[in-house]
Amino acid sequence: MSRLISVNDIKPDDLSSYVVLFASMTNPVTGKADDPNEGFLPGAIKFDLDGEGSDHSSALPHTLPAPESLAVLLGQLGVSNHSNIIVYDNLGMFSAPRLWWMLKSLGHKNVAVLNGGLPAWKVAGYPVTSTLSSRPPVSYQPVVTTGWFCNSDAVLKAIEVATPLILDARSAGRFNGIAPEPREGLRSGHMPGAFNVPFNDLLDVGLALKPVSTLKQFFKEQGIDISQPLLCSCGSGVTACIVGLAALEAGAKSVTVYDGSWSEWGGEHAFPVETCNA
Fold first, then answer.
1. 230 contacts 165 by C-beta, under 8 angstroms
2. Given this model, what pLDDT does residue 207 score?
């Protein structure tokens, strides 16, 4: 199953062959929550990244739940190891890649992101519903797959030995240290040696990932060698997954996401930070 699925490749009647997961999350920068009035894809089941989809025993936002906890949640939602899954979000391309990344960390094979999400679905003229769906609970057995996520130790090592290359999905202002962080108590700036890859630069009209050829050209122009291992970071480990997905689509072979991201790094004064105040 491909990483991305286009509205040109699927019709409403096809959705019955999939488990459709709606990756719900409030935008931490704008504060905009998902609006039920926008409707849902037919058959969609809500996966709440602000709720049970995160580990709330951690002080950090959107922390990855333990594999066993995530597997229990998926089973409760009616997702099995063999489910063919489509994940989408209401903004087009925002939180859905995070859920895709989480599923891959459990070894799930058949999962794709709807490129452009709900906006693209509506532009195609396809119907939406006013209510969410549910499925009978099933059993989900996690097959933990390492490498999809990493911790601060991996980032410190990457800074020391210059591999993997660190890609930061935040805006240029936050990366350069000239714009404040939306979360209180965090320093501005970036990890030493990091490349700034604002996730919006990878999106077409802010909604869908750009074509593969355009993504390849983007990374080349930024001087980022995607044949090397990559480590993606952002504010809380969500939009880093957009950059990671784009890199994989462009041909990268090794991509990991720093789960704590700037919520952890910017709040820990022992970690090094650079700024570009020019």
1. yes
2. 92
